[in-house]
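Morning F.,

Quick status update on the modeling queue. The single chain you submitted on Monday has been processed. Sequence for confirmation:
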Amino acid sequence: MPEAVEAMFDKKLGIEVGHPYDTLIFEEPMAYCDSPMCVSRRAHNQKSPFEMPQRTAEEKRELIKKNEPVHQNCPECGSILKDAEYATGADWARKIDWTIIQTWRIDCNPMRLVCWYRGARQPWALMVEEYDWQIEKYNSNAAHDATGLGDVVAEMVRNPAEDVLMVGRERKDMISEYIGACERGEILMPHIEYVYTEHKFASVDDLFGTGHLPDTISSGAITLIAAGYGGSLAIAI
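Structure tokens below.
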């Protein structure tokens, strides 16, 4: 998918190397207005304050304690803003692999990577903590690779997350669906050199044969499951 790779990485969204143990945040959690007026202005590429940073979980808890409204209002039309929707996926490091955890914004078309982490094999508690942190920051749907792990990770994760077994026919279907989504332009990412390189040079044998499936592609396929792939995609934001 060389042509698809070139199209899915947008340097305007950010340029990073993807060093080990970096947590890259490209977008904060957002809330947006979907009133007809703001949607119309957005469609015509006019500036409109229809989108702003989402309130954090801590801020919402404080408002609830004070018996004050948790929602935010659009400064343009007064409508209640909706929190954006996100999905987080994790592929865990084994002996020689990397842990890749990423979060996409999924209520937009194309879906967009907003947060990314890469780390080597560490104690499970440390790797799971990064995973939980992304899930909680973005209040996201979540999935992770549970292949060969039994209940090791499932018992440590604080948040609801789907256990994904990447074996046999299911594994091939997952990779095929991820490649298809990339080729159809349904996923957009900042230019992270590590991710870009793994996607660009992955061979058919790496993807479907006896080669090594790149960790970033495995993580992407899992994130696609967390996104509820096969459902509807929202308007472009």
